[in-house]
Amino acid sequence: MSRLFNIFIVLVVFTFIACNSNKKENTAPIKHEKTTKGHNEIIVDCDYTFEEAIAGSKAPKYILNQLKLINVRYYSTDKKIHSGQILTNREITPKIESIFQFMLEHKFPVAHAIPIVKYDWDDNLSMQDNNTSSFCYRDINYSKHAKGLAIDINPYFNPVRWKAGHENRINRPIGAHYDPAIPGTFSKSNPVVQKFRTLGFRWGHSFSAKFDDHHFEMQY
Q: Residue 73: which residues within 8 A CB-CB, separation 6 or more?
């Protein structure tokens, strides 16, 4: 009888320990992974570090020290929200962020926003891909892109078109045609163009020799 009683006590104690052990495990906090599915999906077009974004640039150090890599979100041509990056001059960073917020709120589509390092610093390849970008080092005497003080938006939708007297020059990017009916294309009445102007940018449409409709540069 005593032996059976001892066995009973052991079973009770074992059961008590097991139950309390399970209870402790079940009360542990549950870790929830972030999801990008469904209506909250954000498509990441690029995620460079600053060092990666300037890798291979021929710009001198004093210019590279003026730059900042910013993350931006935009409504893209696939009607989804994307996350990209703009490598630009620190002086105009708040204005660029304001422009992207404005375009997102108005659902003005931006095809891509990726630093030109992806295209081996070839601006023509970037434009051909309809990529939006700011810094691209070149001759600082004629281009504000060399210091990141300009930005090109949807260059394939808004190609360079040469004006009268310059018809022998090639419109770029190759194969692009200007059609203001296409979403993401600029016109004089476009609210994004007006927003740029209020922030102190000059629109490339006003250049003397060409309609550089994708180009906006800071006026200092």
A: 42, 81, 82, 83, 84, 100, 104
In whole angstroms, give the CA distance from residue 73 to residue 103: 9
CB atoms within 10 A of CB 86: 25
- Angle between the N-to-C axes of helices 191-198 and 93-105, in degrees from 0 to 180, rounded to the nearest 10: 160
What is this structure's pTM? 0.81
d(CA 212, CA 158): 8
29-71 per-position pLDDT tens digit: 322 233 344 557 899 999 999 999 999 999 999 999 999 999 9
Partnered with residue 212 across adjacent β-strands are 160
**Omega before residue 159 within 30° of 0, cis:** no
Alpha-carbon torsion 187, 189, 195, 199, what sign? positive
Tally of residues, the chain: 220
Tokens 């003026």 appear where?
Answer: 66
Element holding 74 (H helix, E strand): strand 67-75
Whole-angstrom Cα distance, residue 63 to residue 43? 31
Helix (H) or strand (E) holding 42: strand 42-44
Can you tell me the distance from the alpha carbon of 16 to that of 14, in angstroms, rounded to the nearest whole number? Answer: 5
State the Cα–Cα distance between residues 50 and 86, nearest whole angstrom.
Answer: 10
Every domain of the chain and the residues it spans: 38-218
Positive/negative CA dihedral, 13, 16, 19, 22: negative
